[in-house]
């Protein structure tokens, strides 16, 4: 009689497996939904919103290029967020903070000859929300001895100061 009341383990597993799978699937759906919701917390609306954001960011990059070509590093730095969390990556180094990035530019480009003339091109500006955008582009310096060039990826955030670069990853192409 005792034997009839015992349920083989294999039959318990047949019951538990579908329940566990259902719980896991439900948890995965909830996790995915909350993640997607947080990423798109401020989704873009109409095409005119995208066009406006692209124009504003393009204007900042143009002002940076003009400032550089006047020899005005401080004017160029106005495109960056004045924050300790601003990040600049290049030459296998990560620099953090607006002041640190500014000091690097001042040291590396200490005179007009080293600065040369800057050109940005092939800009791809992708708004990802009302307060964030990614920019992919090319940079080129025209100097007497050389023509260094490369690519950059920028993350722009909109704050009370307007659109500013919070993350800059710049690479130099091989000569």
Describe this structure in words.
The chain has helices spanning 2-5, 9-39, 47-69, 73-77, 98-108, 112-115; strands at 87-90, 93-96, 117-129, 132-142, 149-159, 162-172. The chain has 175 residues and is of the alpha+beta class. The protein has 2 domains: 2-39; 47-172, Nuclear Transport Factor 2, Chain: A (Roll). It has a 6-stranded mixed beta sheet, with helices on one face. Strand 1 (87-90) and strand 2 (93-96) form a beta hairpin. It starts with a helix and ends with a strand. The model is unreliable at 1-6 and 15-41 (pLDDT under 50).
Keywords:
Nuclear Transport Factor 2, Chain: A; globular; about 180 residues; alpha+beta; disordered N terminus; six-stranded mixed sheet
TL;DR?
The chain is of the alpha+beta class and 175 residues long. 45% of the residues lie in helices and 31% in strands. It is built from 6 helices and 6 strands, in the order H-H-H-H-E-E-H-H-E-E-E-E.
Topology:
Layout: H1 2-5, H2 9-39, H3 47-69, H4 73-77, E1 87-90, E2 93-96, H5 98-108, H6 112-115, E3 117-129, E4 132-142, E5 149-159, E6 162-172
Parallel strand pairs: 1-6
Antiparallel strand pairs: 1-2, 3-4, 4-5, 5-6
Tertiary shape: globular
End-to-end Cα distance, whole Å, is 87 Å
- What's the order of the H and E elements? HHHHEEHHEEEE
Radius of gyration: 26 Å
Poorly predicted regions are 1-6, 15-41
| SSE class | alpha+beta
How many beta-strand elements? 6
Number of domains: 2
Q: Spatial order of the strands in the main sheet?
A: 2-1-6-5-4-3
Question: Helical percent range?
Answer: 40-55%
Give the averaged pLDDT, no decimals.
Answer: 83
Count of helical segments?
A: 6
Largest sheet: 6 strands, mixed
The CATH class name of the largest domain reads: Alpha Beta
Identify the CATH architecture of the largest domain: Roll
| CATH fold name of the largest domain | Nuclear Transport Factor 2, Chain: A
Beta-strand proportion: 25-35%
């Amino acid at each position: 009689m005792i034997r009839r009341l015992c349920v083989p383990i294999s039959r318990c597993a047949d019951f538990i497996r579908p329940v566990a799978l259902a719980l896991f699937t439900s948890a995965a759906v909830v996790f995915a939904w909350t993640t997607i919701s947080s990423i798109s917390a401020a989704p873009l609306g109409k095409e005119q919103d995208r066009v406006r954001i692209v124009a504003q960011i393009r204007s900042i990059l143009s002002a940076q290029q003009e400032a550089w070509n006047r020899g005005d590093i401080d004017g160029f730095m106005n495109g960056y967020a004045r924050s300790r969390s601003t990040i600049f990556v290049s030459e296998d180094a990560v620099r953090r903070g607006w002041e640190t990035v500014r000091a690097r530019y001042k040291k590396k480009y200490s005179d007009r000859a080293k600065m040369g003339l800057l050109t940005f091109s092939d800009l791809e500006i992708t708004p990802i929300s009302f307060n964030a955008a990614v920019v992919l582009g090319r940079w080129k310096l025209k100097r007497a001895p050389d023509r260094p060039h490369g690519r950059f990826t920028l993350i722009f955030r909109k704050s009370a100061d307007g659109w500013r670069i919070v993350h800059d990853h710049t690479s130099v192409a091989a000569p």
